[in-house]
Predict the structure.
Amino acid sequence: MLGQQFYHETVRNVIVAFGTMFNNINIVRKNNSGVITQKMKVPLAYGPKQKYLTRLDTDPAQANKVAITLPRLGFEIGGLSYDTARKLNRVQKFKKVKSDSADANKLDTQFMPVPYNMDITLFAMAKNSDDALQIVEQILPYFQPDYTLTINDMTDMGIKRDVPIILNSVSYEDNYQGDFETRRAIIYTLSFTTKFYLYGPVTSSKIIKTVQVDQFANLPEVSPTREQRYSVTPNPATADADDDFGFNETSSFFEDAKNFDSTTGTDVNKTNE
C-alpha cells in the first residue's frame, strides 16, 4: 500500500485559496476634517504570529535589523484532523477517460477521498485601533459563520469541490502596557476551520471494449467440446468509459473442435494434451 509516490498539492491549494481571500484588504487614514490623507494595502504573509512579534520589538537602529511595519496580516496552520461526519463510501471510485490522444484508450480511476479539517489562524496586527478595526470589519461580514470557496481539487480527474471555511472565534490583544520604548501592537486573532478532502493515487488502466466467453461441454475432460460463445461490445463501438452507451450481445454456436487463441485473436484447432 505505502510506497507509491503521489502528490496532488491539495493542502497547498487550500492554503493558497485561504490566503487569496485576504490579499486585497485596504485601509484609509483621514485627518480631522474627514479628508483621506493616506490609503494603503495591508500586506499578507504566511508565518507564525510570534515571529512577527519578535520582529516588531527589533530596534531598527541596530545594524542588519529592520522592524516590521504595521498594519499587517499573517496566517499559519494549526493542525489537521479527520472528520468522521463527512466520511464517504471507501469502495466507490472516480473514473475519467484520458483526453490525451496517445492514451485515449486508458481509464484513470481513483478511490473516494478522505475528509479532513484543517485549523488556520489569521492575525491582524496594527499600531492603532482604527487600522485594526478597518481590517476586521472587512472580514467578519462575509462569515456567517462560514464562507465557501470552490477549488480545483483534482485537475487530472476534473474534480472541483466546495471548501467551507468556518470562522470559529475572534480574540483581541493589546500590549499597550509597557515602557515608552516598547512598540504598541493591537492584535486580532481569527480562528478558522477549513473542510476539505485528501485524495489517494490515480490508477491508469486500459479500457475493456470486448468481453468474450466460450462455453464448453464434457468438462472436466482433457479436450472438452466447444459449444457456445457469448460476446458483448459497447454500442456505439466508439464509446468511451464515461459515455452514455448500450451493449450489443451476440451468441454463437459451434460444432467444431477449435479453441480461441487470445494471442492471435483467432480460432485454432485444439491439440490434445
Observations:
- The chain has two domains: 10-204, 209-269.
- The helical segments are 10-21, 49-56, 129-137.
- The two ends are 41 Å apart (CA to CA).
- The first strand starts at residue 26 and ends at 30.
